[in-house]
Amino acid sequence: MGANETNIATLDQAVFNQWFDQRFEARMAEREAAHVPSLSIIATKGTLDWAYPPFILASTAGALGWDVSVFFTFYGLELLKKDLHLEISPLGNPSMPMKMPFGPQWLKDINWKVPNVVMAGIPGFEKMATGLMEQTVKNKGVASIDVLRSACLEADAKLYACQMTVDLFGYSQDDFIPEIEGWIGAASFLPQAQKSDVCLFI
Amino acid sequence: MSTHATQTLDARGMNCPLPILRTKKALTDLGQGDTLAVVATDPGSLKDMQAFCKQTGHELVSSSEKQGEFEFLIRKN
Questions:
Q1: Do residues A121 and A113 lie in contact, with contact meaning Cβ atoms separated by under 8 Å?
Q2: Which domain, by its residues, includes B51?
Q3: Where are the strands (E) in A73-197, listed by range?
Q4: Do A140 and B55 touch (CB under 8 A)?
Q5: Which domains does chain A have, with CATH numbers?
Q6: Which of A129, A150, A202, B4 is deepest in the core (most CB within 10 A)?
Q7: Active site residue B53
Q8: How many CA atoms does the CB half-sphere of A86 hold within 13 Å?
Q9: Is 0.85 exceeded by the ipTM?
Q10: Which CATH number covers residue B66?
Q11: What count of other Cβ atoms lies within 10 Å of the Cβ of residue A26?
Q12: To probe the interface with A, which of B12, B18, B42 has the most A CB atoms within 10 Å?
């Protein structure tokens, strides 16, 4: 009889285990299906080229139905200004291709290798480089930063500004777009970032 | 371009992520079961549109390429 009881107990355990495994898998699948993915970005750069990654990723995640929040700090704060005057600097950036956005194809294909010392010495070189990038962006059908920022807001992405940076750089809150979700600090953003599925520092 | 779609979206000349953003916007204005035809030239849109539909639960009814143009038919769910 003792042996019998042991047998029944073993059988029950196996049946229970099978039931539990199936049930657990089904519940986990349900949970996954109901889960809204979330993305947190920390945007720290304020140049025209570096403005793209946070806004492209945030707007795309928004289009995918994700919960998106972006924390703009230091130079990243520049991306939340009412008037965007973003510039690029090819200086000290050897990876940046310097190509003409207009003219015949042979001219467009030339990658102008301008030495840093020359760039630094030509007044208005950065203005020119910025103009060329803006033209290239237009030619290639890439969205402007303004358009991408609006797309983020339309997708309900939460854009946070770093209050400390505002104080540090002597900005006024009036310089920034009114859609800003909050003026917060690292202590407020980190707990939010902790819960997100994807967290990126850009 | 499909003629029986409820609405069509011309995303030609647009680059990543604009075709997806415009598709999402166009779908918002449609009713459930309506279809959206999208035509794009961005080569990345082929993979992006599949990922978009998989993630958002809309049905990618068909996708095809013809002379550098990509055509998609999406049914809103």
A1: no
A2: 7-75
A3: 158-162, 182-184
A4: no
A5: 36-201 (3.40.1260.10)
A6: A129
A7: no
A8: 22
A9: no
A10: 3.30.110.40
A11: 10
A12: B18
Query: What rounded mean pLDDT belongs to chain A?
Result: 85
* CA distance linking residue B35 with residue B17, whole number of Å: 21
Other C-beta atoms closer than 10 Å to the C-beta of A145 total 18
Amino acid identity of residue B9, one-letter, is L
A143 contact residues in B (CB cutoff 8 A): 14-15, 17-18, 21
Chain A positions touching B24 (Cβ under 8 A) are 63, 155
| Cα gap B70→B63, rounded to integer Å | 7
**Number of domains into which chain B is organized:** 1
Of A59, A65, A141, the CB nearest to B21: A59
- Pairwise CB contact (< 8 Å): A63 & B13: no
A96-155 residue pLDDT tens: 777 777 778 887 888 777 777 777 777 887 888 888 888 887 887 777 888 889 889 988
Helix (H, G, I), strand (E, B) or coil at B60: strand
> Which one, of A135, A149, A200, A201, lies nearest residue A179 by Cα?
A149
Residues paired with residue A198 on neighbouring β-strands, in sequence order: A39
Give the C-alpha separation, A50 to A79, whole Å: 10
CB pairs A-B closer than 8 Å: 39
A63 contacts B20? CB cut-off 8 A: yes
